[in-house]
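Quick entry, no commentary yet.
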Amino acid sequence: MIAHIIHKAGGLIDTRAQAEGPPPRTLARFIRWALKGAWPVILLGALISLSAGSTEVLSMYLLGLIVDAAGEAGSLLDHWPLFLGAAALMLVLRPLLFGGLALTQTVMIGPNVFNLVMTRLYRWTIDQSVSFFDNDFAGRLAQKKVQAANSLTETVIESVNALTLGLATVLGTAALLGAVNLWLVLILLAWFVGYLWFLKRHLPTIRSRSASRAGARAMVSGQVVDTLSNIKTVKLFAGRQYEDTKTLGTLDELRTKALRFGEATTSFRLGLICIAGLLPVALIGAAVLLRDSVTPGDIAAIGGASLRLAQMTGWISFSIMVISGHLGEVEDGMNTLSVAHDLTDAPDAGTLNVTEGRIHFDQITFTYGGDSGGIEGIDLTIAPGEKLAIVGASGAGKSTLVALLMRLYDTEKGTLRIDGQNVADVTQDSLRQQIGMVTQETSMFNRSALDNIRYGRPDATDEQVFEAARRAEAHEFILDLQDAEGRQGYGAHLGERGVKLSGGQRQRIALARAILKDAPILILDEATSALDSEVEASIQTALDHVMEGKTVLAIAHRLSTISSMDRIIVLDQGRIAEAGSHDDLLAQQGLYARYWDRQSGGFIGSDKQEAAE
């Protein structure tokens, strides 16, 4: 029965509900955006909390009546309805209300609000452009999402638990005092005004310093993740001391911010202790002075209520301080994560329909927002089924050309079309679904080998995955894999970024992924650079079969891998310097011929005078 109730209560918030529009940049509107859909449950929790808080004062009121009854002549049994009501309050109503309050906090609100906020922040962040992620630490962004979701959840719970409960206690106490003597209400009101003034003076400082502390904490996380993600480079360059200095620097900054936050909260709590202690002294003293119009039961009720309110004041104030700190962390996360998308689908974007695979770069310019770098004035048409190789020194614009085709960035000038369709007028997903890609730096998910290959086509059968792996010369080594958990073969997890595999093995997994995807346009960005000559030769035939019928763009420094392509273009400082077949370009005795002559082992730019990217 209880399990059924908990299950039903836990499903009242749809944690996967889509957010409406982008996240706002102001705190109050951001909170409304993040919690949309959860408000009915939050209000229900607040109502239960108000009801539970009212029982605090009601119990003191009944205590006063019992004291007065005890002082009257006659038998206490004459007041059995009073005792029965008090028993019902303490044994039935209070347990039900506080049990319901616990249910709303731990089952209905806690896990669901966190998932709701986290889902919305994750969805917004993952749709950001590549440049957004280029300009920040991955660990810092992850920390900001978790921090904002967790802090907003704690804010809601503390608000429902402490603020509404405290509000009910204050209002109930005011009603109790008003029933005894209006002068007591004025004393409570004067105290409450002073209490609010104290909060207004201190909370902005706490919130501001909490946001600074949260930012410093995220920087620590980002620095540590950055170091660990590049641990091989750290080891190879004996960079432990350098990384130690940088990490300790971020930790020192966090400590400084945490100390400033601690200073603010300590002074806040000390002041509250004094303010809370003032209330029962003032109310009980006034009640004694007004003893001619106040009964012993009234004094007992006033004393109990004022002491309880003083205790709750400390608890409520601590909760307000915690909430203020959490809001600072939410605001810090909001400032980072609610940045508007700089690359979006057009409102009327359609689906890319590739019928031939013709690609046209029409006077394309893109310089990453600067005056130089990238590409400029590129006018290039790639025929359906043509195999085009792109050659150039580092920094010539090869990767930029491919990134624009994938629409990882929007062009600054010019139009890029596929089969006559402007890539800016179709959805990003439909564009990238029509393009297969194998890059020099292949990333692996921390998932099974099967899942890593199947990423190319999620609906592929296991046998189709196996066949793609065979064609990529990956099947045999995959069968020999075993991870730390004992999973073997295609079920073995490859580890974060595939670090348990060699570079060549990772590249063959990526090649199998592209083979499985079987898209009409294929991009090979140094696709075989990490393979030894024997393995490269063994899969070259398979790669030739994969390229059949597709429009192919291949970037390579090792010219021997692209000499048989239909056409080769040479980029130099962002412009097309030469174009033609391998033999034609050699005959021109230009850049391509110089690259060919300078190669040592087949690499461009071995000459020290070549430009570095």
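second:
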Amino acid sequence: MLKVRNLTSGYDRSQILFDMSFEVDAGEAICLMGRNGMGKTTTVRALMGLLPTWDGTIEFEGSRLDGLSAARVARQGLGLVPEGRQVFPNLTVHENLKVAAANRRGDPKPWTEDRVYELFPGLLERTDSYANLLSGGEQQMLAIGRALMTNPRLLILDEATEGLAPVIRDQIWDCIARLRGLGQSIVVIDKHIKRLLGVVDRFYVVEKGRTVWSGTAERVRAEENTVKQYLSV
């Protein structure tokens, strides 16, 4: 579905990604993990067309994404839950969801507000509340719901549990597991590996702008010490 090969990118003259490579199969959930500053969020921004591709390729469902604008990438079917949530603070929950709505032709069961409220019942009670009045957990649920309203073929969640209380983190991970069960293809950027072992299919370790290790949950368990060395500060 998604194939990233030897991706090179960065900011102005500062190169962050060096031959980044990974892939996501249809219906699969993967996790990009690594210490802070290793290039995970930069990878997401390059995928979404928010940063230029200096070299390498990004292929999605047989079409090249590298070189496309962010708007065209979104129309291809990539949905982003950005780091820091970035909901529209002066819009209500309903308006945040409505503004993102897109009905892609061929979707057998497109996402609607009602489906988002089924996934996050707490948002239904806040439908007329402005986003800046929501708790951090509610804002994160809204950010996920907003991304789903674009009916993405691939959903990317960048640090979706960062700064949240443990009980809210569990709700977000349960949501990811439910989406995976529905066949949603997912890329997760997260550091809570143990909790994700039962949620995602494959893990990639990112270090200094490239993937240096990859494996299934079983391999993570078998090579726990190796993975910990990559992730330790």
